[in-house]
UniProtKB/TrEMBL annotation:
Species this protein is from: Picrophilus torridus (strain ATCC 700027 / DSM 9790 / JCM 10055 / NBRC 100828 / KAW 2/3)
Keywords attached to this entry: Membrane, Transmembrane, Transmembrane helix
Annotated TM spans: 14-35, 41-59, 71-88, 133-153
Pfam families, A to Z: TM_HPP (PF04982)
Domain HPP transmembrane region: 16-148
InterPro entries to which the protein is assigned, alphabetical: TM_HPP
Protein's recorded name: HPP transmembrane region domain-containing protein
Source superkingdom: Archaea
Amino acid sequence: MYYKNHEEFIRNKMIPALFVGITIAITIFLLHYFYNLVIPIARFIIFGSFASSAFLLFMEPENKSSRLMTFIRSYIIAGIIGLIGSLLTYYINIYYSVTIVEFILAVSLVSLRAEHPPAMGIGLVYVIEKLNIYSIIFVVLGALIIASLDKILEKFVYIERRFDKNYK
């Protein structure tokens, strides 16, 4: 997209990019207590999902998958399916469990119109963690922090678009 002036570029692209970093930094800082209670590989997947979600929410706000309610619904759906799917690991190989959970999760997200790609990582985390209560708290708190920061920080960007009658 071509910007008519530097102010529009800074307000609509650079500030949201800065907010992505701020959001992840605050999320990591606030979740530090639970950080050591979650398996290392799961931590990286969770933060990868959080960072991807923050990027979508701030950098692509017009995108259907970037709506706040879509973000929240997708994480709830991923959590439920991932938790139920984690029980499979007691009966079948973890790789098969991950495959089944990710397939069901993808179909569910599309069927329920909650397509938010980073939620796929959350389903994977719950299979790896096998009903670890700390991972549940970690993801729920992280999602709440990101949603709260999105509502707070969105007031600083996209002002021109909100008042533009051609903006949908």
